[in-house]
Specification:
The protein is an alpha/beta fold and about 250 residues long. It has helices at about 10-20, 50, 55-65, 70-75, 75-80, 100-110, 120-135, 170-180, 200-205, 210-220, and strands at about 25, 90-95, 115-120, 140-145, 155-160, 180-195, 225-230, 240-245.
Protein backbone atom coordinates (compact mmCIF):
# COMPACT_ATOMS: atom_id res chain seq x y z
CA UNK A 1 0.00 0.00 0.00
CA UNK A 2 1.67 3.07 -1.20
CA UNK A 3 1.34 6.67 -0.22
CA UNK A 4 0.48 8.10 -3.59
CA UNK A 5 -1.09 11.38 -4.61
CA UNK A 6 -2.60 14.06 -6.78
CA UNK A 7 -5.06 16.88 -6.51
CA UNK A 8 -6.87 15.62 -9.59
CA UNK A 9 -10.35 14.11 -9.72
CA UNK A 10 -11.65 16.27 -6.85
CA UNK A 11 -14.91 16.86 -8.70
CA UNK A 12 -15.36 13.13 -9.12
CA UNK A 13 -14.58 12.59 -5.48
CA UNK A 14 -17.04 15.25 -4.44
CA UNK A 15 -19.74 13.48 -6.42
CA UNK A 16 -18.86 10.19 -4.76
CA UNK A 17 -18.92 11.86 -1.36
CA UNK A 18 -22.54 12.87 -1.98
CA UNK A 19 -23.37 9.29 -2.86
CA UNK A 20 -21.54 7.75 0.08
CA UNK A 21 -21.10 9.23 3.57
CA UNK A 22 -17.88 7.24 4.00
CA UNK A 23 -15.83 9.32 1.55
CA UNK A 24 -14.56 12.74 2.58
CA UNK A 25 -12.07 14.82 0.61
CA UNK A 26 -9.27 16.68 2.32
CA UNK A 27 -10.34 20.04 1.01
CA UNK A 28 -12.78 20.39 3.91
CA UNK A 29 -12.14 23.16 6.41
CA UNK A 30 -12.21 20.58 9.20
CA UNK A 31 -8.92 19.08 8.04
CA UNK A 32 -7.12 22.34 7.27
CA UNK A 33 -5.56 22.44 10.71
CA UNK A 34 -1.86 21.95 10.09
CA UNK A 35 0.29 24.40 8.16
CA UNK A 36 3.16 22.76 6.32
CA UNK A 37 6.51 24.42 5.81
CA UNK A 38 8.76 24.42 2.77
CA UNK A 39 10.55 21.09 2.39
CA UNK A 40 12.61 19.58 -0.41
CA UNK A 41 11.56 16.13 -1.63
CA UNK A 42 13.83 13.44 -0.18
CA UNK A 43 13.17 11.11 -3.14
CA UNK A 44 11.70 12.92 -6.15
CA UNK A 45 9.46 10.85 -8.38
CA UNK A 46 8.93 7.89 -6.05
CA UNK A 47 5.16 8.44 -6.18
CA UNK A 48 4.99 9.21 -9.90
CA UNK A 49 3.05 6.02 -10.79
CA UNK A 50 0.36 7.00 -8.31
CA UNK A 51 -0.05 10.52 -9.66
CA UNK A 52 -1.50 9.18 -12.89
CA UNK A 53 -5.23 10.00 -13.05
CA UNK A 54 -5.63 6.74 -14.97
CA UNK A 55 -4.12 4.70 -12.13
CA UNK A 56 -5.23 1.07 -12.48
CA UNK A 57 -6.55 0.14 -9.05
CA UNK A 58 -7.09 -3.52 -9.90
CA UNK A 59 -3.49 -3.84 -11.05
CA UNK A 60 -2.28 -2.55 -7.70
CA UNK A 61 -4.77 -4.71 -5.83
CA UNK A 62 -2.99 -7.70 -7.32
CA UNK A 63 0.39 -6.30 -6.29
CA UNK A 64 -0.51 -5.14 -2.79
CA UNK A 65 -2.71 -8.12 -1.92
CA UNK A 66 -0.70 -10.98 -3.36
CA UNK A 67 -0.17 -13.85 -0.95
CA UNK A 68 3.57 -13.66 -1.64
CA UNK A 69 3.65 -10.18 -0.07
CA UNK A 70 4.45 -10.89 3.56
CA UNK A 71 2.76 -7.84 5.08
CA UNK A 72 -0.45 -8.89 3.36
CA UNK A 73 -0.14 -12.56 4.23
CA UNK A 74 0.55 -11.76 7.90
CA UNK A 75 -1.68 -8.69 8.20
CA UNK A 76 -3.81 -10.18 10.98
CA UNK A 77 -0.69 -11.08 12.95
CA UNK A 78 0.55 -7.50 12.57
CA UNK A 79 -2.75 -6.08 13.81
CA UNK A 80 -2.82 -8.54 16.72
CA UNK A 81 0.70 -7.45 17.75
CA UNK A 82 -0.43 -3.82 17.82
CA UNK A 83 -2.83 -4.52 20.69
CA UNK A 84 -5.61 -2.23 19.53
CA UNK A 85 -8.57 -1.71 21.87
CA UNK A 86 -12.28 -1.26 21.18
CA UNK A 87 -13.22 2.38 20.81
CA UNK A 88 -9.81 3.55 19.61
CA UNK A 89 -9.34 5.84 16.61
CA UNK A 90 -6.73 4.69 14.09
CA UNK A 91 -5.48 6.13 10.83
CA UNK A 92 -4.05 3.87 8.13
CA UNK A 93 -1.65 6.24 6.36
CA UNK A 94 -1.28 5.33 2.69
CA UNK A 95 -4.00 2.71 2.93
CA UNK A 96 -3.76 1.87 -0.77
CA UNK A 97 -6.36 -0.72 -1.75
CA UNK A 98 -7.40 -1.31 1.86
CA UNK A 99 -6.24 -4.77 2.95
CA UNK A 100 -6.10 -3.60 6.59
CA UNK A 101 -9.61 -2.10 6.66
CA UNK A 102 -11.32 -5.26 7.88
CA UNK A 103 -8.86 -6.24 10.65
CA UNK A 104 -8.67 -2.65 11.91
CA UNK A 105 -12.44 -2.21 11.92
CA UNK A 106 -12.87 -5.48 13.79
CA UNK A 107 -10.19 -4.52 16.32
CA UNK A 108 -11.64 -1.09 17.25
CA UNK A 109 -15.25 -2.20 16.94
CA UNK A 110 -18.32 -0.23 16.02
CA UNK A 111 -17.51 2.34 18.69
CA UNK A 112 -14.09 3.03 17.21
CA UNK A 113 -12.96 4.90 14.12
CA UNK A 114 -10.75 3.96 11.19
CA UNK A 115 -9.45 6.66 8.87
CA UNK A 116 -8.18 5.08 5.65
CA UNK A 117 -6.22 7.81 3.89
CA UNK A 118 -4.23 8.02 0.70
CA UNK A 119 -3.02 10.66 -1.72
CA UNK A 120 -4.29 8.77 -4.79
CA UNK A 121 -7.92 9.67 -5.55
CA UNK A 122 -8.52 6.33 -7.26
CA UNK A 123 -7.38 4.49 -4.15
CA UNK A 124 -9.67 6.60 -1.97
CA UNK A 125 -12.63 5.66 -4.14
CA UNK A 126 -11.63 2.00 -3.74
CA UNK A 127 -11.28 2.40 0.03
CA UNK A 128 -14.72 3.96 0.35
CA UNK A 129 -16.34 1.22 -1.69
CA UNK A 130 -14.48 -1.51 0.17
CA UNK A 131 -15.57 -0.17 3.55
CA UNK A 132 -19.16 -0.06 2.33
CA UNK A 133 -19.01 -3.57 0.86
CA UNK A 134 -17.51 -4.98 4.06
CA UNK A 135 -20.15 -3.25 6.20
CA UNK A 136 -17.80 -1.08 8.25
CA UNK A 137 -19.60 2.18 8.97
CA UNK A 138 -16.77 3.24 11.33
CA UNK A 139 -14.34 3.46 8.39
CA UNK A 140 -13.88 6.83 6.72
CA UNK A 141 -11.89 7.05 3.48
CA UNK A 142 -10.13 10.37 3.01
CA UNK A 143 -7.97 11.98 0.38
CA UNK A 144 -4.88 13.62 1.87
CA UNK A 145 -1.91 15.60 0.64
CA UNK A 146 1.61 14.65 -0.36
CA UNK A 147 3.00 16.48 2.66
CA UNK A 148 0.20 16.23 5.21
CA UNK A 149 -2.22 13.64 6.55
CA UNK A 150 -4.83 16.41 6.66
CA UNK A 151 -6.53 15.33 9.87
CA UNK A 152 -7.77 17.57 12.68
CA UNK A 153 -5.79 17.98 15.89
CA UNK A 154 -6.19 15.22 18.48
CA UNK A 155 -8.39 13.19 16.14
CA UNK A 156 -6.59 9.82 16.33
CA UNK A 157 -5.04 7.57 18.96
CA UNK A 158 -2.93 5.34 16.72
CA UNK A 159 -1.31 5.81 13.31
CA UNK A 160 -0.29 2.91 11.09
CA UNK A 161 2.31 3.30 8.34
CA UNK A 162 2.91 0.04 6.46
CA UNK A 163 5.41 -0.10 3.58
CA UNK A 164 4.71 3.62 3.22
CA UNK A 165 7.28 5.56 5.23
CA UNK A 166 9.81 5.15 2.43
CA UNK A 167 7.22 6.71 0.09
CA UNK A 168 7.03 9.95 2.05
CA UNK A 169 8.60 12.56 -0.21
CA UNK A 170 8.23 15.13 2.55
CA UNK A 171 8.68 13.18 5.79
CA UNK A 172 9.17 16.20 8.07
CA UNK A 173 5.87 17.78 7.09
CA UNK A 174 4.00 14.50 6.86
CA UNK A 175 5.11 13.38 10.31
CA UNK A 176 4.58 16.88 11.68
CA UNK A 177 0.97 16.78 10.54
CA UNK A 178 0.61 13.33 12.07
CA UNK A 179 2.09 14.53 15.36
CA UNK A 180 -0.55 17.28 15.27
CA UNK A 181 -3.36 14.81 14.55
CA UNK A 182 -2.44 12.37 17.33
CA UNK A 183 -3.94 12.78 20.78
CA UNK A 184 -1.60 13.10 23.74
CA UNK A 185 0.31 9.86 24.21
CA UNK A 186 -0.77 8.74 20.75
CA UNK A 187 1.26 6.03 19.04
CA UNK A 188 2.66 5.33 15.59
CA UNK A 189 3.33 1.82 14.32
CA UNK A 190 5.68 1.66 11.35
CA UNK A 191 6.14 -1.45 9.22
CA UNK A 192 8.88 -1.24 6.61
CA UNK A 193 11.60 -3.15 4.81
CA UNK A 194 14.93 -4.00 6.35
CA UNK A 195 17.43 -2.12 4.23
CA UNK A 196 20.83 -3.69 4.81
CA UNK A 197 23.54 -3.29 2.16
CA UNK A 198 24.94 -6.67 1.20
CA UNK A 199 21.96 -8.49 2.72
CA UNK A 200 18.72 -6.99 1.39
CA UNK A 201 17.42 -7.64 -2.11
CA UNK A 202 18.62 -5.18 -4.74
CA UNK A 203 15.04 -3.96 -5.26
CA UNK A 204 14.87 -2.98 -1.60
CA UNK A 205 18.24 -1.23 -1.74
CA UNK A 206 17.18 0.72 -4.83
CA UNK A 207 13.62 1.48 -3.75
CA UNK A 208 13.71 2.02 0.01
CA UNK A 209 15.24 5.33 1.02
CA UNK A 210 16.15 4.70 4.65
CA UNK A 211 17.12 1.76 6.81
CA UNK A 212 15.65 1.08 10.23
CA UNK A 213 18.25 3.05 12.17
CA UNK A 214 17.78 6.09 9.95
CA UNK A 215 14.00 5.91 10.35
CA UNK A 216 14.41 5.68 14.12
CA UNK A 217 16.64 8.78 14.09
CA UNK A 218 14.17 10.71 11.94
CA UNK A 219 11.25 9.77 14.17
CA UNK A 220 13.16 11.03 17.20
CA UNK A 221 13.85 14.28 15.37
CA UNK A 222 10.18 14.60 14.40
CA UNK A 223 8.99 14.29 18.01
CA UNK A 224 8.37 10.57 18.50
CA UNK A 225 10.11 8.28 20.97
CA UNK A 226 10.76 4.63 20.23
CA UNK A 227 8.71 2.43 22.57
CA UNK A 228 9.55 -1.04 21.27
CA UNK A 229 10.18 -3.22 18.27
CA UNK A 230 7.37 -5.70 17.78
CA UNK A 231 7.99 -9.34 16.94
CA UNK A 232 5.59 -10.72 14.34
CA UNK A 233 5.94 -14.37 13.36
CA UNK A 234 6.36 -14.85 9.61
CA UNK A 235 7.97 -11.53 8.75
CA UNK A 236 11.41 -12.12 7.28
CA UNK A 237 12.44 -8.91 5.54
CA UNK A 238 10.28 -6.45 7.42
CA UNK A 239 10.59 -4.71 10.78
CA UNK A 240 7.76 -3.39 12.96
CA UNK A 241 8.21 -0.71 15.60
CA UNK A 242 6.00 1.30 17.92
CA UNK A 243 6.63 4.98 18.65
CA UNK A 244 4.90 7.41 21.00
CA UNK A 245 4.19 11.09 20.49
CA UNK A 246 6.30 13.27 22.77
Amino acid sequence: MKFSSSGAHLLALASLALASPILIGCASTESATYETSEEVSVKPGINKPFLDPELDVEKFTGIFEGESREVFHYRQEIVDAMGLKPGQRIVDVGAGTGPFIDPFANAVGEGGKVYAIDIAPNFVEKLAQRAKDEGHAQVEARLCGENSVDLPANSVDVAFICDVYHHFEYPRNTMGSLHHALAGGGEVVIVDFDRIPGVSRQWVLDHVRAGKEEVFAEMDEFGFELVEELSVDGLEETWVARFRKR
